[in-house]
Specification:
elongated; cytoplasm; TPX2_C; single chain; TPX2 C-terminal domain-containing protein
Length: 111
């Protein structure tokens, strides 16, 4: 009988250990699935952002219209002319002094 009790108690511990192992493995599996889903969502978001950026670039290219410009005259050299406006004369700065209300004379202060 003594041996049977030890076997029963050992089986209980063994069963409890197996239950804990199962729960732990389920938790690990759940965490790994959650991280995989987060990675997939992140990749999908990056793909969407990239596609949106490419579409925006395509729209911008369609909106850009090249404008023709006149060709410069290479026969006639560029000769700048002196301006007819008068030269600007620098002026000195004018600082405004603030008038204080009343100043207290040092002789009127009593110690």
């Amino acid at each position: 009988m003594f041996v049977a009790r030890n076997i029963r108690s050992a089986q209980r511990y063994c069963i409890f250990f197996l239950v804990r192992c199962d729960a732990s493995s389920e938790a690990c599996h759940h965490v790994s699935e959650k991280s995989l889903r987060a990675d997939e969502e992140k990749q999908e978001k990056e793909k969407r952002m990239q596609l949106e950026a490419e579409e925006e670039i395509k729209k911008m290219r369609k909106q850009m219209i090249p404008h023709a410009r006149r060709m410069p005259f290479f026969d006639l050299p560029f000769k700048p002319h002196r301006s007819t406006k008068s030269l600007t004369v620098p002026r000195s700065t004018k600082f405004q002094t603030l008038k204080s209300k009343k100043t207290i004379a040092p002789s009127t202060i009593q110690e």
